[in-house]
Amino acid sequence: MDPDRPEFDLVIFDCDGVLVDSELLSCRCLSEVLAEFGIALSQDQALELFLGRSTRAIEQHYRDLGQAVPEGFLPRLKSHVLTTFAGSLQPIPGVAAAISDVRLPSCVASSSDIDRVSLSLDVTGLRSHFGERIYTAEMVTHGKPAPDLFLHAAEKMEAQPARTLVIEDSASGVQAGKAAGMTVWGFVGGSHYRGRAGHAILSAAGADRVFARMSDFWKGA
Q1: Boundaries of domain holding 63
Q2: pLDDT digit string (tens) for 23-67?
Q3: Domain C-terminal end among 42, 69, 88
Q4: Domain total for the chain?
Q5: Which of 34, 36, 95, 124 has its Cα between 20 and 30 A from that of 10?
Q6: Distances (CA, A) of 194 to 16, 22, 191
Q7: What's the pLDDT at 145?
Q8: Which residues contact 79 (CB under 8 A, 6 or more apart)?
Q9: Residues whose CB falls within 8 Å of the CB of residue 66, separated by 6 or more in sequence, listed in order
Q10: Does 83 lie in the same domain as 164?
């Protein structure tokens, strides 16, 4: 595909695992904070259960198990994640150049809250690529895998879903993009996909294409 004459009017980037290499960090934080409250969950289990999901999904998961998360859990988790990210978060290799090469309107749509996304972009130097064009699960009723967030982002960016490209690293994100009627490319270059069959996972979720390096963003598309 020629990036100067693409078939899209908008590119929506997920944040965690697409722009920033945060998924393992966030799953480790979740495991550690749950342990503080007496709930056992390994980092691998956190990855399998909550990759690409919002904190509301975490609460719902334990509510369904009849084990509501204790009061104070969410503020403690947020604090731990922000502190960890501020000291350790790195951008996905090559992502800044890839964003610059897109040469299309773009924005971020993330299951994380606005404070976490803003910190992630600031710490990794990616904020200048998006400015205030950041949309999060807090802004809609239903998070991924529902299509609400991507539809909200496209509406705000004045783009038609059929001419919108979504870049996602999670099965729930891929499902959300497809449910919104958008083209979805799965990205498996984050550290959380080492040793995991990322291509198969995202293809099974409905991704139209799967790639592993940001330098290959347009290659083969």
Answers
A1: 24-88
A2: 899 999 999 999 999 999 998 898 888 887 778 888 889 889 888
A3: 88
A4: 2
A5: 124
A6: 16, 14, 6
A7: 94
A8: none
A9: none
A10: no
Contact 143/149 with Cβ under 8 angstroms?
yes
| 95 and 147 together in one domain | yes
Tell me, what amino acid is at 132?
A: E
Share of the chain above pLDDT 70, in %: 96
With contact defined as beta carbons under 8 Å apart, do 111 and 137 qualify? yes
Give the pLDDT score at 2. Answer: 59
Burial status of residue 128 (CB atoms within 10 A of its CB: 0-12, 13-18, 19 or more):
exposed
At 3, the pLDDT band (50, 70, 90 cuts) reads low
DSSP 68: P
CB atoms within 10 A of CB 147: 20
Residue 56: φ, ψ to 5°: -60, -35
Closest Cα partner for 15 from 93, 107, 84? Answer: 107
Say what the pTM is. Answer: 0.87
Which tokens sit at 133?
């064009």
Reported as type and span, the H/E element at residue 123 is helix 114-123
Same domain, 113 and 123: yes
Which residue is listed with tokens 């722009």? 19
**Residue reference for tokens 């991924």:** 144
Is the predicted pLDDT of residue 181 greater than 90, yes or no?
yes
Question: 201 lies in a domain?
Answer: yes
What CATH number is given to the structural domain containing 113?
Answer: 3.40.50.1000
